[in-house]
Amino acid sequence: MLTRRELMAASAAVLASSREALASEAGLVALPDKKPLIARSFRPPNFETPLADLRQPFTRNDAFFVRYHLPVIPEIDTSDWTLAIAGPGTERELTLSLRDLRRDFERVAIPAVNQCSGNRRGLFVPRVPGVQWEHGAMGHALWGGVRLADVLRRAGVRPDAVEVVFECADAGVLPQTPVYVKSLPIDRAVAESTLIAFEMNGKPLPHLHGAPARLVVPGWTATYWMKHLRTIRVVQQPFDGFWMKNAYRLPLGAFPGARFPSQDDASTTPITEILVNSIITSPAEGNRLRRSKPAEVRGWAWDGGSGIAAVDISVDRGQSWQPAKLDAEIGPFAWRGFRFRLDTRTAGTLEVMARATGRNGQRQPQALTVNAAGYHHNVPQVVKVEVA
Amino acid sequence: MKHLRLARLFLALCSISATAADETSIVLIDAPDRDFTTAHCAICHSLDYITMNAPVMDRARWRATVQKMIDRFGAPIEAKDVDRLVAYLSQHYVNRE
What is the pTM of this model? Predict the structure, then answer.
């Protein structure tokens, strides 16, 4: 237990150079190697991608959102980093360097949306506590690495394995703070698309995105995309830890998506797959469009991997809908571009909405499914523009 | 047009100063127990967690949050200090809409 004096000393540095600022207004701040992003919190760092940086087909590494649960984030020397594959569910233990991963396994690259479970939490009505993200706790990148299944095959997975547990290098300030550990059901861990990734958009994985290697679980929310991987353990019992049992949970049966039965309790279940969703990247809220001048609605639609079947556009706040034109599909976990020519012949206000439908038949809902932690916000945006 | 140019200049200046910001720019409201609250909360996280969540909070939620920090995250807050922290937070960082 710390004494009062130690407590004061611990925060002295924070107080010493303090100055007044508009603390409640999230400003744009540049972290090392990043362009200015929307600062939601400094420590641990939670920084959101501005909407304008979501216009490109692949979100730039330096514009990609940053999300950490714990503030101690070690800079890892890639040359002496190793990844341990262990646990009672394996036949043998492995210790792999980055060179081993690059050399011994087939290389794979998958375009996929990486989206925080709490993306758009700040738009919940009624509001809920947590990081008050708006639209940019997500991005789309090409993730390069090796299949987790190939690595696990080398270690040998016992038939009674239930989950795979992932431990990272980041930690809390106090030793008693639970480190960030997550698990996946064995069938999702060995799915073809689950990667140990060490490249992001063709570049070595940047520090704030999990260097030297992170987990990539296309179609599942970013809580499972563990950064700074250290240890992968195959286990025969459901993993019992704070970040599985108490955090990232939904009311049982409230949402569609893959099940994670070994982690269910009587009333809640872990969040799993991303729900069908879309974002309008242009026009922007409040834009003025010149009357009779061509104007286009553009944006992206994605889901948990069934693929996007259709995007419909409304210009009257959802009273009527017309189909948008879809861009080519580059992969089931990638986002898919859509475009729609606006009728600008009449002056007035347009309330533009986009509504995506997945190949699995699921469609963005009209109303939010309220849940205590503020997950799965996939209600269509409303973008108001003036034609004048 | 003049307004637009001025607005652009203003925004450019804002973004220059904002880029240099760090967590020392976040200071809790100056009132009794400000330093006491800062000392306990800022051990583990920046104070924007408090300012960011203010519009969502009330006294009961602050009590639950302080308790969660102790029970789940191991915050070194003694039982006798909980009321004092909750009092400061719920006086200055609650929804006033």
Answer: 0.90
